[in-house]
Give the backbone structure.
Amino acid sequence: MAQGTLPRPASSEVTIDVVTMRRDLRVRQIGKVGYFLNALVAYFFLWAPILVLVLFSFNDSRSVAQWQGFTTRWYTGIFENVAGTSVRGSTTS
């Protein structure tokens, strides 16, 4: 054997390395999908309650348990009260 050359492995060792490499690549792919799904579920649990709150804020009923129709009166009432109290507070003092 010449100096500086490496001996070739047996053919069975080569197939084991190929099988191991394919398995490792498959595990990595599954891991990437797992990380993505984990992030997706986390964002869902963070944003879903906020979206439900915004959706139910347009409910015409005073109760959240019963949907009676679409309205924006709750938002107009908030802006009227806020604007009215700040003007009254600044003129009386």
Summary: The chain has two helices and no strands. Helices lie at 11-56, 73-92. The radius of gyration is 33 Å.
